[in-house]
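Task: sequence design from structure.
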């Protein structure tokens, strides 16, 4: 049995995830959940990010590039993971934004609620398309094996 939110595997007699309080699903059902997550329409968020690039938040006082080809790279399962990865990416000057149900955090700062609602309340990682390989390398170091479960793109 697997948790559809955090993807952890449990013994067959367990029915609810201890961390997420989600009802567990079979391996086949989990595959369907993962496929559905990959189909999330991120276009509303990508449009918001494009608007942000042209807003006053992207002025001379920030290092926020004007032209970014945003890619929805992964859906992380915890705020702690998201923050650790985001910090590591920023240390390496990789532009990245994490979006959760409460808004954005990262290079843009917290800007409030959004119309984009990730499945299961996860944390969506968006990066510049030019940085995907660097992000993959950093995420493997920080998140480890779980990174492969979180990725939404082939790298």
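Answer:
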């Amino acid at each position: 049995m697997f948790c559809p939110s955090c993807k952890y595997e449990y013994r067959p007699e367990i029915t609810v995830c201890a961390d997420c309080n989600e009802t567990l699903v079979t391996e086949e059902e989990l595959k369907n959940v993962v496929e559905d997550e990959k189909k999330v329409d991120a276009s509303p968020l990508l449009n918001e990010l494009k608007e942000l690039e042209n807003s006053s938040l992207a002025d001379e006082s920030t290092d926020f590039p004007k032209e970014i080809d945003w890619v929805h790279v992964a859906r992380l399962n915890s705020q702690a993971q998201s923050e650790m990865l985001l910090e590591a990416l920023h240390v390496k000057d990789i532009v990245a934004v994490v979006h959760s149900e409460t808004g954005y955090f990262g290079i843009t700062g917290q800007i409030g609620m959004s119309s984009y609602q990730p499945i299961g309340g996860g944390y969506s990682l968006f990066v510049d398309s030019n940085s995907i390989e660097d992000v993959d390398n950093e995420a493997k170091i920080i998140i480890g094996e779980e990174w492969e479960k979180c990725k939404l793109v082939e790298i």
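The longest strand covers residues 70-76.
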